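Structure in, sequence out. Go:
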């Protein structure tokens, strides 16, 4: 059967001057499957491996009607949509059948520049198809299995029918077919890289390596359409001007990128013409659309799924550049791979965004202000997953002299884990506020978990601290014990009975243990995701993290940043992690830290004015009037930035220590603010603030920083208090 199919394909290519031909046979699933294809690369790789019998392709229509059929575009091109087909070929198909049997169809491809097929050519292909049908009928009568194999048979061009055309910059000129086969390497490599891509940056990097570089393009930009406008997903190369022109433009604008979103690959050359339109090679002249950069050349490839255009890849070239059919065919196949990758990554990003929003919503919006207890918390989601984790932390002020610190971890990474975490956290909050001691708090929460009927287990650590004398009672439920760093730098473990996780039946009551903290001690509560490493035990790893901070004890936020930034191993990034730090000051009298806070609702136009008054009044009550002007200015700029860019509620906190003042502004946007010199071009750092606000903060503060937390970020500023 292979010889019979090969003979028909070879004859069809020769008689119709085709670059490739293929035979499709109907399988048991009532689909047309590719049995054999022959011709030059890359044209023979453009044949689909399987087609539905009721599809709109020429192959399916030829099988259904019993007559020759041409490939007809279901959405004819308009006057400004010059390129009609996804590949630079036209297709003609004829049935492979006899009077009593229908086997499939015979299809040929040839360059679209050769025009429509003549009636004589249709009759010639029908004649080849009928003769092939009779040959297959004879094989079937002899008992042969007339069906496509698991993979199609590929036949390269031969000396009698040489369909190979040399394309500049590809392959070896003296070797027929070398150019086409060379083009398949970046295509195969692109498929490998996109299969591993999980972020849009990785998709752009793959496109740069396998599309931009092999084609010697100067720049590449990936564009997506949302609500009638085009937005840049990623870019590389000398792409600043092109990205700036496209980003935010209308989908109906006269630009090549907008035209490509109508479904047509667009090849725009620098050749000028008063009429514009299409050249003989299928390329479009620049003046038919708004130029992006001089008389450069551009390729705009739409990425489509089954129903819509998901993105467009824009390539720019310098010099006199033409786009031969072989390159256009490869670009068409690359567009299909990139479209699937962009859709998958975008869907994954959307799912990850929903999961992260849910996680942030379930974590506490802010930690309470406690005069003798400074706290800082961090939550870091696991890498490479859109699932939510069950890690959480909490701090409750039970009375003026008592606080409860909680950290926990629900088994698994799924919506159920997050739901159970929310229920357990609510139960613990209720029992903590009622004043239950840590062992009783854990035991009662375990009963609630049992009543929920979930099969998940929960580990947790609860520390109740009396800030009047430093007494700390610790209770565990299968969780790592907290660590403490004394004022002199020594590290210890606040040991307590391990007990069993919540959700595991326990024969005895939960037990706790009391410890005494010295003034200046820093307590660290953490989850397993923070200390997962193959090189050291969990406790040793935790001690190394807590001991890594070399700043003063007052910079608890900096210590939290240092601990989280040290998570570099794949094991540490595979699980979500929570961290809760608390520094017990233990001071009374005039040396006791002073704290005050202000809450501003989102879009409150009076929020900045309220911030200035809050800072002025609070510093005046603390006897720090001389610092008021500078702190007011910095606070108003940071709050303005938060209200504009985060679009969320904003919390302002002032804390005065013996030698310095600390200002903290919290919002729900995890992206850090980026100050930029006023002379910097906007496209160099698109995320930059591009205003004077953070430049002012940088000028008046001794130091300032931004750090993420479970609900967004905190921008903090430190200023020294002048000596009396």
């Amino acid at each position: 059967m292979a010889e019979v199919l090969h003979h028909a394909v070879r004859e069809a290519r020769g008689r119709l001057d085709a670059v490739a031909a293929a035979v499709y046979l109907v399988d048991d699933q009532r689909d047309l499957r590719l049995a054999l294809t022959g011709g030059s690369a890359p044209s023979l790789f453009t044949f689909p491996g399987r087609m539905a019998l009721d599809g709109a392709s020429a192959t399916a229509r030829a099988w259904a009607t019993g007559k020759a059929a041409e490939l007809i575009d279901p959405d004819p091109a308009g006057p400004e949509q010059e390129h009609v087909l996804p590949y630079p070929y036209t297709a003609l198909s004829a049935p492979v059948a006899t009077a009593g049997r229908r086997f499939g169809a015979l299809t040929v491809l040839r360059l679209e520049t050769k025009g429509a097929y003549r009636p004589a050519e249709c009759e010639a292909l029908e004649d080849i198809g009928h003769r092939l049908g009779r040959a297959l009928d004879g094989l079937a009568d002899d008992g042969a299995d007339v069906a496509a194999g698991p993979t199609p048979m590929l036949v390269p061009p031969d000396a009698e029918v040489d369909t190979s055309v040399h394309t500049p910059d590809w392959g070896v000129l003296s070797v027929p077919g070398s150019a086409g086969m060379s083009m398949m390497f970046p295509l195969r490599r692109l498929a490998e890289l996109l299969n591993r891509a999980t972020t849009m940056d990785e998709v752009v990097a793959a496109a740069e390596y396998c599309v931009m570089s092999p084609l010697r393009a100067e720049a590449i930009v990936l564009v997506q359409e949302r609500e009638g406008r085009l937005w840049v997903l990623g870019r590389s190369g000398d792409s600043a001007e092109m990205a700036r022109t496209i980003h935010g433009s209308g989908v109906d604008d006269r630009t090549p990128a907008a035209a490509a979103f109508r479904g047509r690959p667009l090849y725009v050359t620098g050749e000028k013409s008063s009429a514009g339109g299409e050249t003989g090679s299928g390329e479009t002249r620049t003046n038919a659309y708004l130029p992006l950069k001089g008389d450069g050349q551009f390729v705009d490839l739409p990425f489509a799924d089954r129903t819509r255009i998901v993105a467009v890849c824009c390539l720019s070239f310098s010099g006199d550049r033409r786009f031969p059919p072989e390159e256009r065919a490869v670009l068409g196949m690359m567009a299909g791979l990139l479209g699937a990758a962009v859709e998958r990554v975008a869907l994954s990003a959307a799912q990850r965004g929903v999961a992260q929003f849910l996680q942030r919503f379930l974590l506490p919006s802010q930690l309470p202000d406690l005069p003798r207890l400074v706290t800082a918390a961090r939550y870091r989601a696991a890498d490479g997953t859109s699932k939510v984790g069950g890690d959480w932390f909490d701090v409750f002020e039970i009375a003026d002299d008592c606080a409860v610190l909680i950290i926990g971890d629900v088994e698994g990474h799924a919506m159920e884990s997050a739901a159970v975490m929310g229920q357990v956290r609510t139960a613990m909050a209720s029992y903590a506020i009622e004043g239950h001691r840590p062992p009783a708090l854990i035991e009662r929460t375990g009963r609630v978990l049992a009543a929920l009927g979930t099969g998940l287990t929960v580990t947790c650590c609860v520390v109740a601290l009396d800030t009047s004398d430093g007494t700390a009672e610790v209770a565990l439920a299968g969780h790592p014990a907290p660590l403490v760093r004394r004022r002199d730098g020594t590290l210890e473990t606040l040991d307590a009975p391990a007990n069993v996780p919540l959700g595991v039946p326990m024969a005895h009551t939960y037990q706790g243990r009391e410890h005494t903290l010295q003034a200046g001690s820093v307590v660290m509560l953490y989850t397993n995701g923070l200390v997962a490493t193959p090189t050291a035990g969990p406790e040793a790893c935790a001690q190394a993290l807590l001991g890594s901070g070399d700043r003063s004890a007052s910079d608890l936020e900096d210590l939290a940043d240092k601990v989280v930034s040290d998570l570099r191993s794949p094991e540490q990034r595979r699980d979500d992690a929570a961290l809760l730090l608390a520094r017990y000051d233990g001071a009374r009298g005039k040396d006791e830290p002073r704290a005050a806070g202000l809450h501003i609702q989102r879009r409150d136009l009076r929020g900045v004015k309220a911030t200035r008054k809050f800072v002025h009044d609070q510093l005046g009550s603390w006897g720090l009037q001389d610092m008021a002007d500078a702190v007011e200015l910095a606070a108003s700029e940071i709050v303005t930035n938060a209200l504009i860019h985060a679009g969320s509620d904003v919390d302002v906190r002032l804390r005065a220590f013996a030698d310095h003042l600390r200002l903290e502004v919290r919002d729900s946007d995890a992206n850090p603010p980026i100050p930029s010199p006023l002379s910097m071009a906007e496209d160099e750092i698109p995320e930059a603030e591009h205003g004077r606000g953070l430049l002012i903060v940088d000028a008046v503060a001794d130091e300032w920083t931004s750090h993420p937390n479970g609900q967004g970020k905190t921008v903090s500023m430190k200023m020294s208090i002048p000596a009396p």
